[in-house]
Amino acid sequence: MRYLWLFVGMIYMGCGTQIPTLEQSAQQTHIPSAFSNAKDLLIPQNTTKIKQSTDSVNIESLQEQPFRLQQFMALIDDKQLHQILHLALKNNTNVLTMISRIKQAKSQMKINTANMLPILNAGLNSSYIDRRTLSQTATIRPGANSINANISMSWELDLFGKLNALTQSSKKAYLQAQSNLAFAQISLIAEVATLYFTLRDNAYSLTLAKSTLKNLEQIQAINTDKHKLGLIDIHTYQSFVANTTAQKNTYESLSYTFEQNKNALLVLLNINADELAQNIDFLDSLHYTFPHIANFYIDKMPSDILLSRPDIQASLYALHSQLYKQSNANAARLPNISLSGSIGEILYSTNGAGSLVFQIANSITAPLLNRTSLKQNYLIQKELSNEAYYTLQNNVNTALSEVENALFDMQSKKNQVQNTQNVYDIGAKAYESNSAKNKRGLLDKNDFLSNENTYFNLQTQLHNAKTSEILSLITLFKALGGNLALEQIENLQKEKSPLRK
After folding, report:
1. Neighbour count for residue 59 (Cβ, 10 Å)
2. Can you tell me the distance from the alpha carbon of 275 to that of 265, in angstroms, rounded to the nearest whole number?
3. What value, to the nearest 5°, has the Cα angle with vertex 237 and ends 235 and 242?
4. How crowded is residue 19: how many other Cβ atoms within 10 Å of its Cβ?
5. CB 194 within 8 A of CB 78
6. pLDDT, tens digit (0-9, with 9 covering 90-100), for 288-338
7. DSSP result, 317-377
8. What are phi and psi of 363, to 5 degrees?
9. Backbone angles phi, psi at 272, to 5 degrees
């Protein structure tokens, strides 16, 4: 008997599931040791990493939010943006769907866990037998009835880990559902923030486009009088009409773009236009100033950043879940050992009550003729494990490319803002000079309006460049899975801790 249990233990160990560690996963998925485009965003260790005003940040409100939202709120200090982010995380249908899937996965995990325990059933039944029989003497025999109660038990002994593998698989599926929710929240934060700043930029461009159109209409009116007086020919006059018409079409196109982005934001927030208008008026964006951006740096290894991204974690859990399913399919080819028993009592009977009946049985069943299907099912599960690994590798590759692209784009957009700022500074000085000349009557009204439109165009370009820079930051935030090295929350906790004592 001792050798039998040793043999069973060896088989059980052979059916165990080998789950790779994070270090092994990092090696298997070929994650590099450093980001090639991160060097420009690193802050030297001998300098102060975070120097910024923290008066507008409420540490208590940050601590109440999910971790990634905490990081984003500390990164970009815009109260109106924070307000609609709360609406989005509360109302977004995709997030609500992920929450529902978590509940489903949790219930499935409980079901598989319960399947490892003995099953107890209680029953109560009654019967009536009519024994009335007609014979030549017309004798009527009375019927018989009885009431029985019984309790039965059945239990499959999981010696080879089949049921345990299924339970562990469902636990990993539950963790996968939680990671999917976290990634959905990060994606939602990024999408809402992107649309928020895009709408701000659209509204700013619309305002300046309207001012530009007003100037072009004045220019056209001035030259209409000149054309009537014969001071300019029809070809020259045609260009002024064409410029005005082109600007009208540009304004209409910008209005349509604004409407598209507004409706896209409404879909994410799952609210109507009136509710959005109560929270924010995007058309009042001419005097909007860009929010304070906290300093950040990238101090973690790529394996730490990528493997902590919720979508990569979900892929890891999906791989682990499939490996357990593979173990379950392998254990299904081994014998099943089960115990069963029942006990019952006759509560009432015309023939007498109180009889006790019990039964205990055990069984060992092994698949014989259906081994082919079991083997093929195991091979299918094995290939599904390979597929899950390939999916993980593809997701890691995609995440790595997203981070590298975002790092490069962040630096590129920063350079573009600086270049546009240089041109704008010169244009602003030229506009001030032309404005002074126009007030003194030294500059023709027609020329001044044209110069003013050039200044409006420079303003639009600079605003677009700054918007693109902050959008690249949002993209980087999403690519890093919210793992920007922000010390703001920790510093605030240290600063406020003496006040709490």
Report:
1. 18
2. 12
3. 95
4. 14
5. no
6. 889 998 888 777 788 888 988 999 999 999 999 999 999 999 988 888 888
7. HHHHHHHHHHHHHHHTTSPEEEEEEEEEEEEEETT-S--EEEEEEEEEE--STTHHHHHHH
8. -145, 150
9. -95, 175
Our CA angle for 40, 291, 478, nearest 5°, is 55
CB atoms within 10 A of CB 437: 15
pLDDT digits (tens, 9 = 90+) for 427-475: 999 999 999 998 888 888 889 999 999 999 999 999 999 999 999 999 9
> The tokens 């160990």 sit on which residue?
13
CA Rg value for the chain: 37
Tokens describing residue 344 = 């019952």
Contact 375, 346 (CB under 8 A): no
Sequence-distant contacts of 124-128: CB under 8 A, at least 24 apart: 124/148, 124/149
How far is the C-alpha of 29 from the C-alpha of 27, rounded, in Å?
6
Which H or E element spans position 119? strand 119-129
- Which run of H or E residues covers position 150? strand 144-157
| Tokens (6 digits) for 94 | 């995709």
